[in-house]
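Database export, one record per block. Field names are fixed; values are copied verbatim from the stored entry.
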Amino acid sequence: MPTLLRTLLPESRLATIATLSGAALLPWICVLAEALPATTEAHNWSTAWIGLDALIAAGLLGTGALLRRADPRAAPVAAATAALLLADAWFDILTAAPGLDRTIALTMAGCAELPLATLCALPALRATAPPTHPEAPPETHLAPHQPAQLSAPARR
């Protein structure tokens, strides 16, 4: 990961963004519980969307907590959360009615879900990036072991 990117978005900043975003989703879940219709052509429509947002909130909160502790488990939690955010944006857009609903879905995707998915992908990418400075060149590791030459003690 380039040094500039680590300077601009250190783990502490990513942790803050993830934690605050997860916390902000909690009241949104309550809004969804009240605003989503109880029935549509799909069974348990509101439960499905509330459950998805609850999973995203848990993922963002978990990512933030694990990043703050520099826990290596942050990478897979962040990657899973990024995937959930992408799925949320996808289904929001595809299931929105044309007009204002679709505009809101596109705005949420562009301003919240996709940027957060990108931020969540960073710890996973950092964890899987190859080292930039290996400890020793590969040929050093492959060189055969040479036993030390012992010289006979000098005679007087």
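Remark 1: Helices lie at 3-8, 11-35, 45-68, 74-95, 100-128, 138-142.
Remark 2: Residues 139-148 have pLDDT under 50 and may be disordered.
End of record.
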